[in-house]
Amino acid sequence: MIDFRYHLVSLISVFLALAVGIILGAGPLQNAIGDQLTDQVEALRVERTALRDSLTATEAELADLQAYALGAGAELVDGSLEDVNVAVVDVDGISETLELDVVNQLEAAGARVVAQSSMTESWDAVDDSVLRDTVADGQRGRLEDMVAEDATTSQVLGTVLGVALTEADEQTPGERSDRAVELYQLLTQVGLVDSRFAPSAPADAVLLLTAGAAEDDGAPGSESPEVDEDVDVPSTVVTLQSVAGTVVVAGPTAVDGDLLTELRATEEVVASTSTVSGIEQETMRMNVPLAIAAQAADEVGQYGFEEDAEAVPPVVRAPDGEDAAQESGGTTGDEASTGDTGTTGEDS
């Protein structure tokens, strides 16, 4: 049996401890704890203010640097493509706003945008492989001076697109050849190319625009057609470069799985064709006309902020007018060069 006095002593101990805690908390410890908390709050407040001031200063500095870069860049870009005809081709659905920004940059550099087109989903969809093969096979004989006998469908279509956009009439270099007109009509009629506006003159350079990595928004019916693994986009680009003479591929900052990354991982492309990444930024869009001018002067490079790229292209002036096709290797009705993918032809 437990003695009642044991319970009494326990209760007294509990209340005594409680009383001591109250006395200490309200007395000597109160000021120390309060002061410590106040000091910590004040230190955090000062640190927050300092960080805010530092952020404001950094943003102002970045704004100044951006303004300087845009001002200096505009001086570099101005006249870099004076009187150069450029055909713009949307490869995989770049936004209209971004395409317009790039076109405006080209025009600010003095270029004449003579065509705006887009490759349709039929260009690489599995369901349209027969269509592509049929078009390519039908043009092999007509382009035998420009394509090798063992050229793939991707290479033949790259040649067809290059001729359609860049081939000039041999008698009137400022006008498109009959073959160029007919091939462009063929590409649009079979649904491989959509035309924003048809070429008004032979292009001295071709700019391919890519939207970057595809994003699945999860909406019903938003899935893109299955891509045919036999479609060799790098091969198409290399062939187009060999026909057109000056080709640049531009798109947003490169990420794994996008077209720019694929092209930059292909030796043939890196050796022959320039790419520009980061065009979602205004300063990086200035690289597009500079890259085209450099490519026309046989200065090939990969431009952007990625590890495998240079930040800024060399500043050169592209040859203007009729000289551009001759100096950059562009095609005329009786002259074409296809580099590694074909042979040099005589009269078409």
TrEMBL record:
InterPro entries: MctB. Transmembrane segments: none annotated. It holds the Pfam family MctB. Residues 304-348 are annotated as: Disordered. One of its GO terms (biological process) is copper ion homeostasis. Residues 327-348 have a biased composition (Low complexity). One of its GO terms (cellular component) is membrane. This is Copper transporter. It comes from Isoptericola sediminis.
